[in-house]
Amino acid sequence: MEITQGSPEEAASGQESPQDFARRLGLPFADNLLLSRALTHRSYINEHPDALEDNERLEFLGDAVLDFLVGAWLYNRFPEMAEGELTRMRSALVRTDQLAEFARQIDLGLALRLGRGESGGGGRERQAVLCAGFEALIGALYLNSGVSAVQAFIEPFLRRAVDEILSSNKDLDPKSLFQEWLQSQGHGPPEYRTVASQGPDHARVFEVEVLVNGEVFGRGAGHSKQAAAKQAASAALEKARLSA
Asked: In terms of Cα–Cα distance, which of 27, 26, 25, 35 is closest to 3?
């Protein structure tokens, strides 16, 4: 089955069709419904009742596939690395901001099917949306072509990212690093505050802010409060580096 073109509405908005997206990246998709589903955010379903399903189930599957393949890749790539270091490296490679960066590298935002409100509100650049879309794409690629195809697709991303992670200590706990920086500046401990949560129970996304003396220093999103807090700490560390 050949992937069909996007709707006239999508074409008019400049959105990339699933067919063009697959062709641009050389992805071996034959099932138009599967790829379209991977690119469909729940906000699109809310505005288009005729659409069958959003990408949240594929996101769940892709998350599991990524955990396994990234772990296996690290195990073989770093035979001298201890279990604790491997765990930290895997966490750094599959966390929200890193997967969102992978999505940006392939311009995934151009192909996402978003509702008008989400799109107008910057959803095509929102980390949580991009991360979820990338995980859903991995889940769809796994169902369509198997583990080997996902492995061939993801390994170039991992090779590029792992050097940066090691050189900048991104595998270390950002909350600990941020607290150490605060102490060096004479500040007390930060405060982490959950400010929002959305989505169904199996794919809930939390948003967390980190505050220093009442000032918001960073904001993050993730599928758990702990993951979102780590993203907030990473954003705060970046702010601290830029202001240094």
From this structure: 35
